[in-house]
């Protein structure tokens, strides 16, 4: 592929010891902004020994079928599966072909895909599909979706069919109509009827969905619950989540999930009503999720654990290094041929996201808690690498990073993950969580090929993806966060999307900058390691991720407003003065002030209209030990000390997420009672004034009882929901409860004092 290469930089030994400061220099930032990535070659003397305990380092592999990673291929395969599920449900002969070879006016054969016909019809009635427009629809409380016209309207639109025939390589109009009538027509009517009945949402939501392309004989993901039992094996109705009345259960012939017959036929979810499914259909019945399609796709993880040696044997990999030469170019062309060929089912194995916990298996860099026997005679040099700031174990907490202020350890972000590649194993298009920077270091092996789309082309890239497969993004708004989709850089550049390339070899770093899409593949066996980090200039990106994630309904990783408060508190207290430059402080102040004003407006609307008396939970005190202000105490808002010592396996603090937009409820949340008062039985073990108990309670209820009668909502979504459901915000459910998580008076004073000090800078 004739793509421009990203720049390579060569820091001096002193610059490399302050790697984040070096990356933050204006000239390096300009390169990162333009290309999305840079390659960093360490000083000549920097050659850390690989420090894995190979006798203990074991990992499972991710199985990747390359042709299914191609986004348009996957959409086409999904559509065939959905049509066939519809045909099976109606006991009609299924379609066994992925595409049809038809004659065009050039006396050549043209591959005609049923999905392409279907989606072209939809796009003709939805001509301006963009990323923002489509994803906003998924957030709308009115549950809008794409305009799907009636079958009659589509059939009589002669202009449409002439345009489509021309679009599909000038195939005869009669040929195009033939395939639509034979394979798509009835299914299209079904889809239209579902949307017309406001049933565009799925029949049920599933925490652990199964892809329509998965092998039904093995689970897509091996998930276990807190007791170690595999999820999905019990005969539990996925609609009511109860195990009783087994005699009334029916199994979907596609996903193999269980349903009470009464739950299927009753839109209100009540069981034991008259069975309206014909007995002749019981064996072939398929749930609506499998007919409409859930859009989900995930990698299957193998059960076997590999050592590096057994992985090399199984993947027939060699430790030879491919430099940037003709051989690597041939491999690159071959890789994309596998990805783009819908008929080729080549599978590869990738030891990805390896996060072991035993010393000697966590990182390939030297660490103080594991010293290989081969290094004991060279302990001084070994330890110099163990404490070096460019060691990925240390990088997230090195000088210039803001991550230490979060006081959380997040596996894969602040703790490195290891990657063991094989020939053609791939990492798909994605951005880093919360738009952080990332560093990837190659310890040994064959070249890793990277592609980048910088921030400047992200919107155009996202619009292209949505315009290509809008139905998938309706089903999965956070699709590009799943790391399962590839589009060839050649296709992207043809559509005006800027794309660059990099070749990474051993002892080289690839640094990705904020909001850079990147992907790539391995040319053979290699061993890499990656971690995230931040710098001052990341802060605005981290904040913008909050709004972007609300649209795509992805959960944030960091509680950003706690970070802003911490920065301003330490700035006022004179702590970490070398960490907080003027730009960072001003950005923190401006962002927090804006959000504080917005939150006060929302609280005022709720208090003035409904007179809800809020309960204060000392959420902020978990970190900053803030004291309740005298004004808040006088206002009647009580402060309850946290009396529950909570700590999960990664030392991550619990968060409360909005049930609708999935954002972290930073300042306040509303417990919205959907079906009356939350029962005393449900709340009997809950101390409602204890944040950690709330977090655990909500997590448990949403997981075990997804049909619960309450939702946790952020103020924005609560106000939007009430305005939609009642036509105004003048009325609400009198049982709804408002909780305040931060001392607003304290933040007000903090902003006042910070602004005063900033003005004197």
From TrEMBL:
SMART domains membership: JmjC, JmjN, PHD
Residues covered by the PHD-type domain: 234-293
UniProt entry keywords in alphabetical sequence: Iron, Metal-binding, Methyltransferase, Nucleus, Transferase, Zinc, Zinc-finger
Entry-linked PROSITE patterns: JMJC, JMJN, ZF_PHD_1, ZF_PHD_2
Highest rank taxon of the organism: Eukaryota
One of the record's GO cellular component terms: chromatin
Domain spans labelled JmjN: 6-49
InterPro entries assigned: JmjC_dom (IPR003347), JmjN (IPR003349), Zinc_finger_PHD-type_CS (IPR019786), Znf_FYVE_PHD (IPR011011), Znf_PHD (IPR001965), Znf_PHD-finger (IPR019787), Znf_RING/FYVE/PHD (IPR013083)
Chain ranges of the JmjC domain: 384-550
GO MF annotations in UniProt: histone H3K4me/H3K4me2/H3K4me3 demethylase activity; methyltransferase activity; zinc ion binding
Main subcellular localisation: nucleus
Record GO biological process: methylation; regulation of DNA-templated transcription
Protein localization: Nucleus
PANTHER family: LYSINE-SPECIFIC DEMETHYLASE (PTHR10694), LYSINE-SPECIFIC DEMETHYLASE 5 (PTHR10694:SF33)
Record protein name field: Similar to Saccharomyces cerevisiae YJR119C JHD2 JmjC domain family histone demethylase specific for H3-K4 (Histone H3 Lys4)
């Amino acid at each position: 592929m004739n793509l421009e290469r990203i720049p390579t930089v060569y820091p001096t030994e002193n610059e490399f010891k302050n790697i984040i400061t070096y990356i933050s220099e204006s000239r390096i930032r300009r390169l990162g902004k333009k290309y999305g990535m840079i390659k960093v070659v360490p000083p000549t003397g920097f050659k850390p020994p690989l420090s894995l305990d190979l006798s203990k380092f074991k990992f499972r592999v991710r199985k990747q079928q390359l042709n299914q990673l191609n986004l348009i291929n996957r959409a086409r395969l999904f559509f065939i599966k959905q049509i066939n599920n519809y045909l099976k449900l109606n006991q009609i002969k299924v379609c066994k072909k992925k595409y049809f070879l038809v004659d065009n006016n050039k006396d050549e054969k043209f591959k005609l895909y049923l999905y392409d016909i279907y989606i072209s019809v939809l796009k003709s009635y939805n001509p301006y599909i963009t990323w923002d427009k489509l994803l906003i629809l998924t957030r709308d409380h009115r549950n809008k979706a794409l305009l799907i016209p009636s079958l009659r309207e589509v059939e009589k639109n002669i202009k449409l069919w002439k345009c489509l025939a021309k679009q599909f390589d000038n195939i005869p109009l009669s040929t195009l109509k033939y395939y639509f009538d034979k394979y798509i027509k009835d299914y299209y009517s079904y889809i239209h009827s579902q949307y017309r009945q406001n049933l565009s949402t799925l029949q049920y939501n599933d925490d652990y969905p199964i892809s329509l392309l998965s092998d039904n004989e093995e689970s897509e993901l091996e998930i276990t619950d807190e007791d170690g039992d595999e999820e999905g094996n019990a005969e539990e109705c996925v609609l009511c989540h109860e195990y009783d009345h087994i005699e009334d259960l029916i199994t979907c012939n596609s996903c193999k999930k269980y349903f009470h017959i009464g739950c299927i036929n009753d839109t209100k979810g009540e069981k034991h009503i008259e069975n309206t499914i014909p007995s002749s259909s019981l064996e072939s019945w398929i749930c609506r999720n499998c007919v409409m399609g859930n859009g989900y796709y995930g990698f299957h993880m193998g059960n076997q654990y590999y050592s590096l040696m057994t992985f090399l044997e199984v993947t027939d990999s060699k430790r030879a290094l491919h430099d940037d030469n003709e051989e690597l170019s041939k491999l690159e062309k071959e890789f994309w041929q596998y990805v783009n060929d819908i008929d080729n089912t080549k599978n590869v194995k990738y030891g990805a996201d390896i996060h072991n916990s035993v010393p000697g298996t966590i990182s390939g860099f030297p660490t103080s808690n594991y010293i290989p026997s081969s290094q004991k005679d060279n302990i001084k040099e070994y330890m110099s690498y163990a404490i070096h700031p460019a060691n990925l174990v240390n990088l997230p907490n090195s000088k210039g990073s803001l991550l230490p202020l979060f006081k959380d350890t997040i596996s894969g972000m602040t703790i490195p993950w290891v990657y063991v590649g094989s020939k053609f194993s791939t990492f798909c298009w994605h951005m880093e969580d919360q738009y952080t920077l990332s560093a990837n270091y190659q310890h040994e092996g064959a070249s890793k090929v990277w592609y980048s789309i910088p921030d400047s082309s992200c919107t155009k890239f996202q619009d292209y993806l949505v315009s290509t497969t809008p139905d998938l993004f309706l089903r999965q708004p956070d699709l590009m966060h799943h790391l399962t989709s590839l589009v060839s850089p050649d296709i992207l550049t043809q559509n005006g999307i800027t794309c660059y390339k990099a070749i990474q070899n051993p002892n080289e770093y690839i640094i990705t900058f904020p909001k850079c899409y990147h992907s790539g593949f391995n040319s053979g066996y290699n061993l890499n390691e990656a971690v995230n980090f931040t710098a001052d200039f990341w802060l605005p990106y981290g904040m913008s991720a909050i709004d972007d994630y609300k649209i795509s309904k992805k959960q944030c990783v960091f509680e950003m407003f706690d970070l802003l408060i911490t920065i301003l508190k330490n700035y006022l207290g004179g702590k970490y003065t070398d960490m907080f430059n003027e730009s960072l402080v001003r950005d923190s102040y401006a962002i927090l002030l804006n959000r504080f004003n917005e939150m006060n407006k929302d609280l005022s609307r709720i208090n003035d209209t409904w007179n809800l008396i809020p309960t204060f939970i000392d959420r902020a005190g978990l970190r900053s030990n803030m004291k309740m202000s005298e004004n808040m105490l006088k206002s009647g808002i009580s402060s309850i000390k946290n009396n529950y010592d909570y700590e999960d396996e990664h030392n991550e603090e619990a968060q409360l997420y909005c049930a609708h937009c999935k954002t972290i409820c930073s300042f306040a949340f509303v417990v919205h009672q959907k079906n009356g008062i939350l029962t005393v039985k449900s709340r009997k073990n809950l101390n409602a004034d204890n944040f950690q108990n709330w977090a655990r309670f909500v997590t448990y209820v949403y997981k075990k009882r997804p049909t619960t009668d309450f939702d946790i909502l952020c103020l924005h979504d609560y106000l939007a929901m009430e305005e939609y459901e009642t036509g105004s915000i003048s009325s609400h459910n009198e049982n709804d409860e408002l909780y305040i998580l931060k001392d607003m008076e304290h933040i007000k004073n903090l902003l006042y004092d910070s602004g005063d000090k900033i003005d004197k800078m």
